Amino acid sequence: MNTIFRKSVLGVAGLAFTGGVFAGPIAAHAAEPVHANPAVVQADKPDSGKLIPHGVQGAQSRIGLNDEQTGNVKAIIAATKKAGMPERAAVVSIATSLQESKLENLGHLGDANDHDSLGLFQQRPSSGWGSPEQITDPEYSTTAFLKGLKQVDGWQDMPLTKAAQTVQVSAYPDAYAQWEQQAADLVAQHWNS
């Protein structure tokens, strides 16, 4: 494999792994907390029609989760409930985090870092998402993501990858779709736990 081609492939693979959040939050004031009425906890598992209203788009990926990753799933769900948003918002958030960080709260990755992207959603301090300390706090980063999602007109009625891409502005806009089934399964499993 020639050196230029190899470096190009490795560069693209690195961007695909780290996500590619090039823009900041849609909200001008992402640091402000989301104020909403507390969500009502349901006794039954969420309806799969609410979790994947459009069906999954394309081939699906799945990874095994360790305790830290499962804790981050629970933190995303808790922040979604606190924001008063529905289960579908948690599915979009978890699928986004699966793509951006594999649900790992990533700090600075040195040369492998995509600009100054950090945390579960690979948000960038330089783009207005918050300070490095805030962005690496799962509740804060989820709340910032959800605040951006709320500003996407009709997010509830669009495919997951379009909703996620509108907030994240990734170099790989279709990559979020591959995580929809696992995200929905995680929400169904943990929404009431």
UniProtKB/TrEMBL annotation:
Record's keyword terms, sorted: Signal
Signal peptide (from-to): 1-23
Protein's recorded name: Secreted protein
Organism: Micromonospora eburnea
